Structure formats: C-alpha cells, structure tokens
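Attaching the record inline, Q. Sequence:
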Amino acid sequence: MAERELFQIGDVAKMYHLSVGTLRHYEQVGLLKPEYTDPATGYRYYSVRQFEQLTNIRYLRALGLPLDEIAATLHDRDVDNIAEALRRQKELIARKKQELEIMERKIDHRLAQLEDARRSELDCIRLVEQPALRLVLLRDSVKFNSYLWLERSIRKIEQDQKLPLSYIGKVGVGISGENLKSAEFGHYDLVFLVLEEDDVYEGRVETLPPCRCAAVRFRGDHSRAPQYYEQLAQFLAANGLQIAGFSREITLIDNCISDDPAQYVTEIRIPVARG
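Structure, as predicted:
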C-alpha cells in the first residue's frame, strides 16, 4: 500500500523545501520522528502518513509558532487548542508589528538628523527655537581627555535599561549656567540622554520647556568646543542676551557614524533670555 511506502530523509527534505538538518532537529526535539531508522546504516525513512503532520508543522512554523508550542498543539490536536495557539500568535505579531513601526520611525528620524547635519551651516551663530525636550540627566563632572572619556557616565545612564542607549536616544553633554557665566569651558557638569517620543526609559525623566537658544555647529568633536563657547559668549554679550540654563552639546556626526574626523559635526545650544 502507498501508506507503507517509505521515503529517505533527503527526498522528504527536497519535497518540503527543508534541509536535512531541519528534519533531524525536528526528530531531536520530539516533533517528528522517522517512521523507520535502519539500525545498520542509521538511514532515516518517513512514511506517507507523516506528510500531513509535516505539512501542519510547516504551516504553523510559517505563522511563527515556536517548535515547543507546535509540538504541544500536535500532541493534543483539538479545535480549541489550535484556536488558542493562533490567538496567542496573533497577539505576538501585533506586538512585533508595533515594535517594527517604532523602529521604522527611529530610522526615519535618524536619517533626517543625518541629512540635516550634512547640510549644516557651519561656524555661524544663530538664534533658534528649541522645542520641549525629554531628558535623562546625569549630573557628573567629565573632561574631554580621551576617546573613552564619556563611557563611565554612559554606563551609569544605561544601567538597568533593556535597550542600548544607541537605540533609545542621543547622548550629549552640557556645562552648567553658572560655569558658562564664569567662562569655565574646560569641563562638563552633566551628561544627558535626549529621548524621542516613543522612547521608554527605566528611571527618572525630566521635561524641559521650550526655549530660545543661541546655537552653533562646527566641524569636529567635543575637543574643539571651548573656542566655540567663547564665540557664543561674545555673541551673547554683543546682542544683550543672558544665559538662561545649561548648554546642550551633541555630536550629530561622530565616530559611531564615520571613521573620518573631517566629517564630524557637533552642535552647541545655550538657552538665552533678554538682558
């Protein structure tokens, strides 16, 4: 009878567009055992009646169900069991879809940031309107003296987070308003993480209100910042503006994006008010 006809594992793999290794794995986890294994050669054979089971496995795998759940479902085949497994998978897909949509928005946002940075008007101080910001603030004194100068502070902010900071948001540094007024531009007083709308941070988050800022972008990284702080101070004095908060300094293009320091772009923003 046709039902008793046996097929070698390689032939079954070809018929179902699977690898031999996949069928062996199904056997190892108890999902689909061969109808017969030759004790002398170890060759594995499958029967026609197992094809329906393999079809069901492929169908459920195509829907994304894990192997252990497929095994449980096929072991106790029942309409209610299948329906419940499919409902759980639908809920999982909905969550994954939401995560992918967030990732897509993050990619779009990062692409827009990069394009904006590449088109930057450099070495030109201007007044800009800063929208409200959601920040994670770490008041920590740091000095630019090596490639890894920020790592200690970043690790503090990243502690207990489910996602790396590179996924959550952009890290920046700042100088307090007091030190800006004293023209102390040689070190930073705080490290911050700018959160986007969809970002979730496990810890304290502060929201800064909208404000007007004096801003400048320049070629290079944080090591070139002091001279631009001096230029900003001169601009504020010449235009009757007062410092109204800590600076926000961010590398828009840095060594995470390019190996060429000539492509780096850094921005400094200082909140201001009329004197």
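The mean pLDDT is 88. Residues 2-77 form a domain with the Multidrug-efflux Transporter Regulator; Chain: A; Domain 2 fold (CATH 1.10.1660.10).

More tomorrow.
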